[in-house]
Amino acid sequence: MAQLPKIKLRAEIPESLKAELAPTRWGKILSITPVVMTVIATMLAGLASSEMTRAQYDRSLAAQRQSKAGDQWNFFQGKRLRALVLRTSLDTLNFAGAAPTLDVASLRLALGDAAASLEAASGPSALTALLTGQLPSPTNRPPPSVELQAALKAIETSQPDSEIAGLLAKVTDARLDDALRGAQAQSLALETALQPINQTIERWEKNIATGSAAPQMRAAYIAARLNYHAQRYDLEARLNQTIAGLYELQVRTSNLAADRHHLRSSRFFFGMLAAQMGVIIATFAIAAQKRNVLWSMAALSGAVSIAFTLYVLIFI
């Protein structure tokens, strides 16, 4: 069987085109303009798409953080409302003169056989909370930075978005995340510390309600309990307010990042259009007269595209 001849494929520039391009370094550069412009246009299209994807991700992240902030604001409002209702009830008792002062001796007498719980487990802490309203302190953590405190204050006082954005520019994401984790840890630590106290106070109330305590003693205990829970809800509400404010700052940070990526995407798109213009001009140069002029215009378009890309990468 006869062997087929080998065929070599080679891309050659037509002689007429070679005549239009000077055999110099500049002429060689112009001859590869379509290829370079195509590569640049493809790269810029990818960058524009990437920046738009990141902008959409940041928008989605901002929505998730806004939902978490809303939950914390709801907790804050609910607990402040509960504290207000409890204080209103306490004021009513005090105004009617039906809330004498609670003391240890009368409480021990009212508890009867359960009086031993005053010294056991969470008894001392619960007794202190009832008699003085003093609650366990949240875990101590370093205070937020001055810049972060200023941003939180701006959120709290409903300052313009432009001012909040300027304050957030001075706060790093790592510092904001650390402050949020610290506030959440404080809230969890307080909840853990108060849980046994709440259980002890409820157990004492049941013992007093089913025992032979005098009505005045029961009224004194109820007043002390109302005061304790009002203090507790106020403290928990303040922590929820802090967490909500930090989430709000994260929402603003995500939205600012999304705006920046969206702007970069549009700028890369304009750069891609400049590179594609260079490809089109170079393509016309193949079939037109005075090709050197068109090649030069294509190269200039490519240079503008590259310069614009570097500007976006560095300054935006």
How would you characterize this protein structure?
The chain has 316 residues and is mainly alpha-helical. It has a domain at 68-256. Helices cover 79% and strands 0% of the residues. It has ten helices and no strands. Helix 6 packs antiparallel against helix 7, helix 8 packs antiparallel against helix 9 (215-287) and helix 9 (215-287) packs antiparallel against helix 10. It is rod-shaped and about 110 Å long. The two termini are 67 Å apart. The relative contact order is 0.17. The mean pLDDT is 80.
Cα end-to-end separation: 67 Å
Number of strands: 0
The proportion of residues forming helix, as a percent range, comes to over 70%
Q: Structural class of the helices, strands and pairings?
A: mainly alpha
